[in-house]
Amino acid sequence: xxxxxxxxxxxxxxxxxxxxxxxxxxxxxxxxxxxxxxxxxxxxxxxxxxxxxxxxxxxxxxxxxxxxxxxxxxxxxxxxxxxxxxxxxxxxxxxxxxxxxxxxxxxxxxxxxxxxxxxxxxxxxxxxxxxxxxxxxxxxxxxxxxxxxxxxxxxxxxxxxxxxxxxxxxxxxxxxxxxxxxxxxxxxxxxxxxxxxxxxxxxxxxxxxxxxxxxxxxxxxxxxxxxxxxxxxxxxxxxxxxxxxxxxxxxxxxxxxxxxxxxxxxxxxxxxxxxxxxxxxxxxxxxxxxxxxxxxxxxxxxxxxxxxxxxxxxxxxxxxxxxxxxxxxxxxxxxxxxxxxxxxxxxxxxxxxxxxxxxxxxxxxxxxxxxxxxxxxxxxxxxxxxxxx
Length: 389
Fold this sequence. Notes:
The chain is an alpha/beta fold. It is built from 16 helices and 10 strands. The radius of gyration is 26 Å and the shape is elongated. Mean pLDDT is 82; it is low at 8-22 and 155-172.
């Protein structure tokens, strides 16, 4: 293969293409057709010059000779790892597989289906709206492989030396059961109660003890066993007592929360909250947080209030910002037929502005009726608290 072809492959970015829809299937199809035409034209020129017999890539193989639409259909059927293996077979597929338009398409197609995301794998969603020629160095392939749950490494990233020491000291401190604070609108707004199902599902998380002490009439604690060997305690805080919550649900009104105190006159577009004194005491005593979010597509509005209250609870004034935060992205039940009706976890992380947190965090999709996803989230949280699982 001539040097001219190698140089063209290395610089192939297609800045002339203007995508009206970022990551669209049609945009990549056009891109692939243009690439094939130029690639095989240069290959024929190289072969006619007498250099083609010296390179195994000079003669196209069966897969390279297929029409662009069939090639694209085959690539859609491959897993990301298999696509990377395909890219290692020859120059042609190496260039096709590294096309940023291909991985933008995969982002758009797959992100709504991801079941989890965390602080180490959250993609730059805003980069998907930027034309390629304005950000030519952004590696969509590497970002997809880092972000996709199917491609992430199952273990946590290695910690630096001081982090390992801190983890060891934290494990000594956590000789007693870790205490986790659970709160959020998903505890009250959903038709199926997450806590009620948890309390009746010993095959998922066996109940290990129910403390008698109540928390100001709006919360209490319950101990569970994870994998039948790790005991942990969840302190559940509701917005108000059960009678007030039930009346608000029947009247379809928002219940006044006793957990938060609104600052100012409440007339601004950006509400601000602090937490009640008894909640401050609870926050100072816990090792991590569980935020139960309502991820159903028809959920009520008030996102600004929800975000402000979420931030108030995680204020570093009430404890170390190194404490992990698990966001359970909950729906009541799966919709028959596999129809996707939940807010994607990446979108929820963006709405809650989790990227701005100093705390390590994870968003995990959960179905309250079946508890699907609960143990994955709890396992991450306990590990992030310092338990050796």
